[in-house]
What does this fold into?
Amino acid sequence: MSKVDNELKCAVVLVNLGTPEQATPSAVASFLGRFLSDKRVVNLPRILWLPLLYGLILPLRSRRVAKLYQQIWLKGGSPLKMFSEQIRIKLAKKLAGKYEVYLAMTYSEPDIPNVVQQVLAAGHQRILLLPMYPQYSVSTTAPVFDSYTKSLKNAYNIPELRLVKEYYDEPAYIAALAHSIKQHWELTARGEVLLFSFHGIPERYARNGDPYPQQCEDTAAKVAALLGLKQTQWRLCYQSRFGKDPWVKPYTDQLLTQLAEQSVKSVDVISPAFSVDCLETIEEVSCELRDVFMEAGGEQYHYISALNDSPEQVDLYCQIIEKHTQGW
It folds into this structure.
């Protein structure tokens, strides 16, 4: 294919958060340092935060987190990277001849600047940037845009850009989540309560205008409605809080304890903010939070996997790509 032909095609760049290159303390420290030093992620004064991060948090957390990664590590790497790459491969196959599909990571390799350079070297002048975050947040989607624009700081010919800001209410996304839950119920005894557990953000982010909590609420309500659930049959909550600042509530661990104390014996938990399974879902949501529920008196706890590289997820991204590239 000639360079001229490539210019007529759109390059789709999928972007996920990132992952350590290896399940070792040094690799985890490198990844977490890159991630947690981003002002979008931890919005604290640098003069206070960075010494604390590099002097105390990383030395203490890296070994413990590395052990957790070792428990979930796959032959080809971390689940987040493996599932994201499988999605890219399947999309590239379905969209062959019309789009070139790339995968980038915000805080690890292949990073956004290097992928953007690959796209430009291939001759593309149209880029669809598709962060793999259904709900927008200043701590996830915004850093993707930051890194993209920074990568073009010295470019002479800037490509045309379209950014998929969010897809939290896309009918295909809602339907895919509902289908995943129904599939789980067909294979496993249905729990008394379905929990939509989203990754949390600090309350002050929401007060400053981050629409993430509202979008999470909308996603959960739409899926619950499609499933025909009564209000008593589902709950929304947030996990993964970090630090001493208050985060958006209710907290998943506290809600699980309350449900158990209210004689709820079985729950199903899904984490719709994650497009693919990763350390947070496999270790925290599937294991740690299960222990919380069981220790409080619960009897059955089932985690419903992320959409990962399922046909529904691939079809969803195909629809999003077609929608956002109309006119190109």
Q: What stands out?
A: The chain is about 50% helix and 15% strand. Residues 46-72 form the longest helix (27 residues). The two ends are 19 Å apart (CA to CA).
